[in-house]
Amino acid sequence: MSDIMVIGIAGGSGCGKTTITRKLIESFGEDVSVIHHDNYYKAHHNMSYAERARLNYDHPNAFDTDLLIRDLRRLKRGQNIQCPVYDYAIHDRTDKTVTIKPARVIIVEGILIYDSRELCREMDIKLYVDTDADVRILRRIVRDVRDRNRTLESVIDQYLTTVKPMHEQFVEPSKRRADIIIPEGGQNKVALDMVIERVRAHLAN
Q1: Which residues touch 201 (CB under 8 Å, ≥6 apart)?
Q2: Taking residues 54-63, what's their average pLDDT?
Q3: Do the beta carbons of residue 186 and residue 19 sit within 8 Å?
Q4: pTM of this prediction?
Q5: How does strand 125-130 pair with strand 92-100?
Q6: CB 183 within 8 Å of CB 128
Q7: If DSSP states are collapsed to H, E and C, what string results for 38-81?
Q8: Max alpha carbon distance in the chain (Å)?
Q9: How far apart (Å, rounded) are the C-alpha atoms in residues 145 and 147?
């Protein structure tokens, strides 16, 4: 499949990446396919739940980014992929996969996607969503407690021990590789409209 645009959407946990991704899907429907880096967490079937719970999930080594790159290249060639499915409740990859079909616009979304130079080279536009740390931790607490069956204490502990230091060490520096930095994420209507217009122009060709 030729004439495919790959858009990276990165930024810290809770910054608003999902909101921008959803707006693009709402605007362009089946012309958009999405790959979430989170689904490419490495499998740890040989570990106990307690061992898995202690792993650092905010370090680049937690992800099978090489597999994501191979899958992205398949999509760019017009081939379907079988995307892994990760279960946050058990801290492990499941045995299930989800079929993702190629589209004229492919979104790659995740906190650490710009840490990989090789993955960056596959992207045409790299967006970084820059949101205040206080807002991000509050959103993360709400999401993890409500949607991922986590306790408040575990979310706060994980934030202080791995999320915050890894953000400062890897995520924040990676925004230097972004083409466009969007303050306040999905609430930034001007930036969002610019991105939508750029995608619309690509699809019109």
Answers
A1: none
A2: 93
A3: yes
A4: 0.90
A5: unpaired
A6: no
A7: HHHECCCCCCCHHHHHCCCCCCHHHECHHHHHHHHHHHHCCCCE
A8: 52
A9: 6
